[in-house]
Design brief:
The chain has one domain: MetI-like fold. Helix content is about 75%, strand content about 0%. The chain is built from 14 helices and no strands. The longest helix is centred in the first third of the chain and has 36 residues. It starts with a helix and ends with a helix.
Length: about 325
């Protein structure tokens, strides 16, 4: 206690004179941090270089060749692969589909997840049960979810056919009709991933101190005012993080498309990644697929920079 009182008196005296004493970092602490960096940084940098930097660099190199993946690339074609990618209407449609997924995720999936999270964020047994139920779709593998929904949408044997047969109507083949297939894919995306964002929002809601909420209630705030003026502003970092994951996941969407629609009908439901797989890997046009990968990499970088500038600027201004 005497040492604590002496330190407090020194801080008060320093504050009065304008010179607050600060602790000097010992050499032992600095050497410990240096040792930790030397032990853990090289393996992490090695893994990052092998699995991120080198593949991106190789894709950039192969994108200038007409290469099928066998042997070493020989036929140099300059920027022809990039010109072909940027002029392909199917690639344009895949970009539109990615934008649609981002919009549906931001305007439908995240609000549903946030609404449910606010309803079941307490620690009661019933809330924990419903949280587990809503999180189950996210646990399923994307391929399994795609196969399940492909059966549900089937116009001959699926649930859609069953419902239409109850009313004596002929069931449509949703996944075989252009436009409807993309809409069906968006429904599955919302169903599959909203549980992940709900879990994030539940964690963000539970991190708000109870005394802050109680103070707002004492001041006369009703439930809507409490949510709008206290809960949502304090959950802003969690909402920004969920939106980031949503955009990033939308740009990487692939596993769900292949078993569900395989990009059809007429290549109308491709994402940029499934387009790369179909027209690059499956057709043995590795050089062309590498060009698509480079374009997608540039798009992702630009989107993330734009995202960071918007939300970091708002955070600094606030």
């Amino acid at each position: 206690m005497a040492e604590y009182q002496e330190l407090t008196d020194r801080r008060v005296a320093g504050a009065e004179t304008g010179a607050i004493p600060s602790r000097k970092r010992s050499g032992k602490f600095s050497s410990g941090k240096l040792t930790t960096a030397l032990v853990f940084l090289p393996p992490a940098m090695l893994i990052f270089t092998l699995f991120v930097v080198m593949p991106v660099g190789e894709a950039g190199f192969y994108s200038f060749f007409n290469w099928n993946g066998y042997g070493s690339p020989q036929k140099w074609i300059n920027l022809d692969n990039f010109v072909r990618v940027l002029n392909d209407p199917i690639f344009h449609q895949s970009l539109i589909n990615n934008v649609l997924v981002i919009l549906v995720s931001a305007l439908v999936q995240l609000p549903i997840a946030l609404w449910l999270a606010l309803l079941i964020s307490d620690r009661s047994r019933s809330s924990i049960f419903f949280r587990a139920i809503f999180f189950v779709p996210y646990i399923l593998a994307d391929v399994v979810a795609g196969l399940i929904w492909r059966y549900l949408y089937d116009g001959d044997y699926g649930v859609v056919a069953m419902v239409y047969n109850w009313f004596g109507q002929e069931a449509p083949h949703v996944l075989a009709e252009k436009g409807w297939a993309t809409a069906a894919l968006l429904v599955v995306v919302v169903w599959k991933y909203f549980g992940f964002h709900m879990a994030l929002f539940v964690a963000g809601r539970q991190s708000i101190p109870d005394d802050v909420l109680e103070s707002a209630r004492i001041d006369g705030a009703n439930r809507w005012e409490l949510t709008r003026s206290v809960v949502l502003p304090m959950m802003r970092p969690t909402i920004v993080l969920a939106l980031f994951f949503s955009i990033l996941g939308s740009l990487q969407l692939f596993d769900l498309i292949i078993p569900l629609t395989d990009g059809g009908p007429l290549n109308s439901s491709h994402s940029t990644v499934s387009y790369l797989y179909t027209f690059g890997i499956k057709r043995m046009r590795v050089g062309y697929g590498s060009a698509v990968g480079v374009v997608l990499f540039v798009i992702c970088v630009l989107v993330m920079i734009f995202y960071k500038q918007i939300f970091m600027r708002e955070r600094k201004e606030s």
